[in-house]
Amino acid sequence: MTISIWRYSHLALAVSSFVFIFLASVTGIVLAFQPISEQIQPYKSDGFDTVSLAETLSVFNKAYPEVTTLEIDTNDFVSASVISENDKNLNGYFNPITAEFLGKKIESSKVFQFATTLHRSLFLKGVGRFFMGLCSFLLFLIAVSGAVLILKRQRSIKKFFAKIVNDNFAQYWHVVLGRLSLIPIIIITVTGVYLSLLKFNLLPESNMSQSINYEAITERPKQDIAAFAVFKNIKLTDVKSVEFPFSSDVADFYTIYLKDKKIVVNQFTGEVLSEINYPLVTLLSTLSLNLHTGKGSIIWSLVLAFASINILFFIYSGFAMTLKRQKAKLRNKLKKHKCEYIVLVGSENGSTIPFANAFYKQLLKAGKTAYITELNKYQTFKKAKHIIVFTATYGEGEPPTNANTFLQQLKNTEQLQPLSFSVVGFGSYAYPDFCQFALDVDRGFTAQHAHQFLPPFKINDRSLEAFNQWVSSFNTASGLALHIPQKKLVAPPKRTKALQVVRKTEVKTNPDNTFIVTLKPAKNLRFNSGDLLAVYPENDYRERLYSIGKVAGNIQLSVKHYANGFGSNYLNSLQQNTVFKARVINNAAFHFPEKATRVLLIANGTGIAPFVGMLHENTSKIDTHLYYGLREQESLIVYKYDLDVVLKNKQLHQIHLAFSRVGNTKYVQNLLQNDAVFVAETLQNNGVIMLCGSLAMQKGVLETLNAICETQNQKPLRYYQEKKQLKMDCY
Amino acid sequence: MKTYKQLLVVGVVLFGLLSFTLPSESTTYKCMIQMTNYTGESAYVVVSLINPKGDYEETLSVQGDDDEWYHDISEWWKFYGKKRGNIDAITGATIAGGARNISIIAIDDSKIDAGYSIRFETAVEDQEYYTKDVAFPLTSETVKSKQEGTGFIRYVRIMPN
């Protein structure tokens, strides 16, 4: 509930102000280059940083009959207004050491003038200023509510900058860039609001009146200005501006505006007549102006430009996400109390909804009465017989927003008829609490003595294959013949890159029907061992994923050939030098650790492919051990060359093999059990265990590992998984 | 040939000297405008010479270089806006609240003690427009004096340079 309030405010604020924010950002990007264009002008003189005020004033007084003002801007350019020999005003930049005239003041170009007016008042003067100030304040609230949303998502302040999983372009970058530009945006908005308040006189007024006793001012003892102690002690870098005495009357004096105070000095004796510190409002105003405009700092200006560009992106990605959520809304044809089948959905960002919707529509098509709604809208459904739950898990095993009160409601709601239920969990192996909430829902129904129609089923990364697998088991159990149209669930191939086949081993010569195919990216392509390669055999929505091993800069896949295998047949049919298109999917959760005390690699069958690549990349020679399950000794031949190389280079310390078809059947988990102490010690000392291979192997290995952890270390395996010491990629 | 050229040069120089010196029986004055501590945008200040009939005769100085806003100084704009003479040489930046500005203005000696007066108009974005923030007759006394302002100007000091 709390999340939705924050999200609602975040959206409502954005909707109400995005037009103004858009204008402010676009003009802001342009204006960020104004301070940069000024800074690169050649008016900063050598020696500016060391010269004293006394030296500069003395040289100016000698060089010109009269000087009226001197100013130092944020770019450290010295400008002055002097009256030259022929009674002409001369304004511009001067050298503070020689008093030489350098050039006219920089006139801000028409583009900047236009952008400035648009940026602060939309050419509407006072009204426009008010709106821009207000929109600055709204943007501040948007930034704050956005920060709260990130906090809620990450569950703690410590994890604020922790990694997030990239499963949606708009959403991922909205969060990543949001975190990066949060502080600049807060600074921009707070200073923007401050500057607006200043314009509308809403800040406490400052009283800077000076009290000078005019009677007591004397011309004696006269001193040369170069000898004024007060001026000698002031560096020019600390000065903002100097007002010269209007006439040679002793009641006219020097007024020096420093960074933090203003002093008044007798023009003949150098005596300080008055000294006033600026009030806080003035100091804050200067600070706000410099921070808001980037005056005087190229780096800060660039940060401001970056933040402004990001704001534009947030407007786009924010609306893209909202539209996606709107699209995923649930619509019903039938009344809830007339339906036998109730489809319940739990989804945080709407990505589970297409699956639930597709299933719901097929139920209707099959002539069943079906009703679809959110988990939180659970209630007594008068005719319900079957409940099917499709739910994601949010954060660390928490329910998604639209399911957060479900478990409580489940306990308090009576159904009129005996129910059967099935739960499908959607999630990602990248998170330790994979589909945890789905399991909680399953347990909740069991506790209500409902009939478990199908065991809970977990789907990784919205896998269509897994979903179809579940649908077919549902068909078997129910006697229905539902067929889910796949096109709506998977987008056609995007961002594919050309790859060339370098070589391919023969299937025939391998006892396991396994072949290795080596691919060379046509263009520069960034990938790591452990990433996935999505192959599109028919160049349509159907994709097949293979784990990548990076060997000598090439992509190396290990593929088991099946007679009717959609993907394996396609890859096996590729001839040497053929070029085809495929997509690399970053799988950062399954990369070889950069630092670890020890790494255990566990694989069976073709699961060794990413590990072969990782071992080649193990240049820092981390103590690495491979546990590998395969059918027989001959199965190893295809990998032998690669493994010999890494063994020889000490990139792999030891290989432990388990043969399932020779003598006593042995699996990798048996090897682990034999090395229980070693395995436990590895985890204890912050080592990492990586797992790649079949789901059957994964199940066996996880059970064994958990048993080892509990007996040896008195901790569940989960403990290490949360510390990211367990990485898996199984299929 | 050579002599012709020299003659030409001398002629041009003479002509230049004469044409610039003849009407220049004017004196330059140093003029300081001290603003009050008002808050808001910087002020546009226009200094004009007013003839005995009370009409604008000449613009002496303009503080404010963005001509987009000149029409806001409406009285003066009625005079200047028609002809739009070149005022680049006498134009400076706007003056902020609490700040002071010193500029050099040139006034024909014939205008002193002859019924002419000088006028300072001020205007600030979204605030008042004072047509006669400071106004005083031009006499040999007032050209070295201090005059109090009635609007954004606290006072004006003027003295021969």
UniProtKB/TrEMBL annotation, chain A:
This protein's record includes keyword Signal: no
UniProt domain Flavodoxin-like: residue ranges: 341-475
PANTHER family documented for this protein: NITRIC OXIDE SYNTHASE-RELATED
FAD-binding FR-type domain ranges (all copies): 494-593
GO molecular function per UniProt: flavin adenine dinucleotide binding; FMN binding; NADPH-hemoprotein reductase activity
Entry keyword set: Flavoprotein, Membrane, Transmembrane, Transmembrane helix
Organism domain of life: Bacteria
TM region positions: 12-33, 130-151, 172-197, 298-323
GO cellular component terms given for this protein: cytosol
Protein's name according to its UniProt entry: FAD-binding oxidoreductase
From TrEMBL, chain B:
Pfam families from the UniProt entry: DUF2271
InterPro entries assigned: DUF2271
Entry protein name: DUF2271 domain-containing protein
Source species of the chain: Bizionia saleffrena
